[in-house]
Amino acid sequence: MSDFFSYTRAELEDFLTSTLSLPRYRADQLFQWIYQKRVFNPEQWTNIGKHDRARLADVFTFPRLEPKYRALSSDGTRKYLFSVGSEDEVESVMIKQPARMTLCVSSQVGCALGCKFCQTGTMGLKRHLSQSEILSQVMGVVVDSTQNFQDMFSNMVFMGMGEPFHNYDGVTRAISILNDVHGLALPSRKITVSTAGLVPAIKRFFEEGVGANLAISLNATTNKVRDEIMPINQRYPLEELLGTLRSIDIPPRKRITMEYVMLRGINDTEEDLNRLPSLLKGIPCKINLIPYNFNTGLGFDAPTETTLHRWQKALMRHNFVVTIRWSKGRDIDAACGQLVTKSRKEKRQHKVDAPPSVQGKAPESSSLSVLN
Q1: Dist CA 214 CA 196 (whole Å)
Q2: Stretch among 85-99, 289-303, 321-335 having the lowest mean pLDDT
Q3: Residues 136-169 pLDDT 10s
Q4: Are 238 and 258 in contact (CB under 8 A)?
């Protein structure tokens, strides 16, 4: 049998016409039943004839992931733990924001890049998630959200476990379905992919016109510091990364998000603040200042609020759009830099506050390396 979530709509059209001799529009109908109506039982596809429904049921599987655990934060954020494969696990986070919900998804089991301020990096890389596993993860959250919380995300970020551009094909194929008008129909402006700075993939992302925004995890103003906290910088140093961003033809009114996790005494000095505007000159961007989560437990400290607000005001005087991204879900280990599955960390219990129909154990896990 074929995994439905492994097909783009164009591929599904080709499969249905060439293998089952069905009309091409059946692909549109299947996408709508699965991604929009969330009906996974072919017997309920009422606009498809009974004979064709039976044939489709014999051909396709719909491996939607069921959350293994779900934890609720006091701020309304939810963290999900999913089993993928026989032993692997990943986490997803529904981030509660004032005017919307944002879904943060994982793209790998672990991460190979080893950023020193991120718990996911302590896992190392086990493997990439397939396109199907990424979409199944998303649909698992979609179904739980609509059935048990009567809410839905309007934005999505690939800022969970893993480096999305290390799994470029799996992530971009999944995005093509998230964008699809017959799929989840998320506009490109509502999806953001974050990378630590894989330069060849950044170039490819813009050349191929992937339907998503780009965020760069910058986090330092010198190669010396960035080498120490982000080993990827030894391969793609600041000059190459920022030079690449300057050379790209960014579409009008588009901006790259520059993410800057602030580590007290390491990358939040006055010298860093003075260097940053010059480093970003000529790059259409906005800046997210992210205070380090002190409870990530990796030996760093958060900046003072005074430092954060001083940076914001100073950078705004240079005509940058600057936001301070206060992490959500800290009490359930769902904030920036916290995601790491239970198999790689001591078990930690979290209170679960869920509807009675889905009450379950709290995730015996820490959190992920992502943000709103």
Answers
A1: 11
A2: 321-335
A3: 999 999 999 999 999 999 999 999 999 999 999 9
A4: no
Residue 207, H or E segment: helix 199-207
Q: Are 60 and 53 in contact (CB under 8 A)?
A: no
Please report the domains of the chain, with CATH numbers, ordered by start residue. Answer: 2-61 (1.10.150.530), 69-358 (3.20.20.70)
Is the CB of residue 338 less than 8 Å from the CB of residue 345? no
Rg (CA), the chain: 21
Listed in sequence order, the residues at least 6 apart from 355 whose beta carbon sits closer than 8 Å to its beta carbon are 148, 149
Closest CA to 108 of 164, 172, 191: 164
d(CA 30, CA 12): 9
How far the first Cα of the chain sits from its last, in Å, is 37
**Which one from 111, 115, 118, 336 is the annotated catalytic residue?**
336
- Of the residues 91, 133, 163, 364, only one is catalytic, namely 91
DSSP-derived pairing of the beta strands 88-96 and 78-84 = antiparallel
DSSP for 134-173 reads: HHHHHHHHHHHHHHHTS---SEEEE-SSS-GGGGHHHHHH
Structure letter (DSSP) for residue 115: -
In which element (H, E) is residue 276 found?
A: helix 270-279
Q: Average pLDDT, stretch 79-91?
A: 90
- Report the amino acid identity of residue 178: L
Q: Phi, psi (5° rounding) for residue 126?
A: -95, -50
Instruction: Please give the model's pTM, rounded to 2 decimal places.
Output: 0.89
| Three-class secondary structure of residue 208 per DSSP | coil
Residue whose token pair is 């049998």 = 1
* pLDDT tens-place string over residues 232-261: 999 999 999 999 999 999 888 899 999 999
**CA 277/CA 167 separation, integer angstroms:** 31
Average pLDDT for 172-190:
97
CA 328 to chain centre: 15
Instruction: State the Cα–Cα distance between residues 119 and 338, nearest whole angstrom.
Output: 5
Q: Is 336 a catalytic residue?
A: yes
